């Protein structure tokens, strides 16, 4: 009996470990089915391509993006995707790329964001003859001229900053003094490729909104304030306006640390560049204890959680979420795959600017009310309601379409109202 | 005399959180002009964090004190909590049921891990890594990679109530106390801690005992998971052995609790240590150190305590050696005189 149990457990372990690998069943050797750059052969959708997707994401928004890849992008481009586990660094990326190469992938969509990972991944892709495209907000010049490194696409950091600035300017426009606690995530070093550029520019956007509204005189340049490692209050030069910055990647620690700060009653706004829901119970406790409404503006995705935030009420009767800066993972994934299709068609030059990769920015959508979100939430719920539909994908993957055309398309779908009306919402 | 000794033990136990609070209060007042505990919300936070730390440390202690470091405990916590939570939500049940389901699943994952241990006889840490990778996949598949999200879910409020959290932690402390002092499991634990070989030769079924320890650890760690997710609202379903950090972070509480518990009981000691460390960490966050600095300070103190633990008997041993030498010299002198 013991032997049978041991055997069964061994089998379960083996299969479990295999499942963790995230590879497909096909273990054929690596292929180089991608056409070498230089000679465009036209868009051929009959050729099947295997693409490895190295992700740093998990959760509902990522599952929505995967559904888009599986149900729209994959069938349209005749692509099959192999997904990684959540990766954290260059080592994880390289290990995953090795698996993909062994499984016969000819393209990699890389979402691992550190400069180091991007550089190492691009070099490996070059070595193995795999096309490599990255989703990141910061451009990595070091590998920009590598032949197989097609390009980069990510949340436009400046647009995230602009969205935060706009959202806060609207809240601050009532003429009253307001104060904010900002969970700025990996903002530190975000302007130098060390942290998250989108987090950095989000924090810059909030600080600029306060500075311009109240004429604040910070004691340091805004970039220096955001790049401070230690949490603390910013010297605003205005005793009625308080700004508290908390850099950190662990929301659990941040909640514990920020609770006493919020409890002082000095703050009536809260902004989080990610994981805002982790703070909602703490904020509700403070609101209940102080009787003061705290406005929450946070980065989010088009997902159930954002809907719940806009529809739920806090202890003061206001909505839990007052504003959301929405980033759409699906759109960035689509652009990555379009870049891959250009590479497969031998048209990689059109995705580059004088032989160098280009950073294409996906704009953020500032949503400042439940009514707007009620329409926005319908995006990504049906094939025709994705920002880029199957027809868009084919049109943008045609040889001759350039990176400028992709940029123009991204600008076209950047405005919330235009986007909603184009989808009939 | 006995009462005096008991009083000393009680004072020793109370001294840890009180002195920690006093030191942090002083530091916070000097450097930040703040109190460590200023409002009712501070108390609520301390209660919650103490509860999570204590229950996790209890779970760790079942195996670690017998030399089995179960590296899959974090994945059992994640799997039990996410699956229990999803089931409770699917059935439209309250937070109380979430807790019950999580405990049941944690118990099952614990039993299976224990069975794997006694069947495969793989070293516990190696087995733990493998089992963690397996258990992490289960909630990932069931939740479709989304994990557990309690944000905005009705009926979960009870889990964040301070009275409920205190009740849960007190019940756990009493349960651990009874298990360790008045049951066969406690008797066997002490025997195995002494020597597994002697325990086995004296008729203790060490394999059954190991499975029981794994099962209880799995159930307890899921309680900590529920207390945690009820406040943070989310538990991600991570892969790649990412789940264990949150558990091992509580090892200091377990080891410090064992030290304090020498004067009273391990169940009391761990609770006391959890309260002490929670106050310490809360004080550090009030000092506005960054996360990395907080981690460095915590780990330095942890290592310092381990060094103290490893060397604390040296002075007593030195005194005993000195006394032995003096006695021998005295005896030698007496014999020479005779």
Structural write-up:
The complex is a heterodimer of chains A (425) and B (338). Chain A has 425 residues and is of the alpha/beta class. Chain A folds into two domains: 36-156 and 328-363 and 392-422, Response regulator (Rossmann fold); 158-326, Response regulator (Rossmann fold, 3-Layer(aba) Sandwich), CATH 3.40.50.2300. Helix content of chain A is 44%, strand content 15%. In chain A, the strands form two sheets. A seven-stranded mixed beta sheet of chain A has the order 7-8-6-9-10-11-13, with helices on both faces. In chain A, helix 4 links the parallel strand 3 and strand 4 (131-135). The longest helix of chain A has 19 residues, at 2-20. Mean pLDDT of chain A is 87; it is low at 16-38. Helix content of chain B is 78%, strand content 1%. In chain B, strands 1-2 form a two-stranded antiparallel sheet. The mean pLDDT of chain B is 88. In chain B, helix 1 runs parallel beside helix 12 (266-286), helix 4 (95-120) packs across helix 5 (124-142) and helix 11 (251-261) packs parallel to helix 13. With 338 residues, chain B is mainly alpha-helical.
Rg of chain A over CA atoms, rounded to whole Å, is 23 Å
Mean pLDDT of chain B: 88
Q: Name the CATH architecture of the largest domain in chain A.
A: 3-Layer(aba) Sandwich
Order of helices and strands of chain A: HEHEHEHEEHEHHEEHEHEHEHEEHHHH
**Chain oligomer state:** heterodimer
Number of helices of chain B: 14
| Most strands sheet of chain B | 2 strands, antiparallel
Strand order of the largest sheet of chain B: 1-2
Output the number of helix runs of chain A.
15
Total domain count of chain A: 2
What order do the SSEs of chain B take from the amino end to the carboxyl end, as H and E? HHHHHEHHHHEHHHHH
CATH fold name of the largest domain in chain A, please?
Rossmann fold
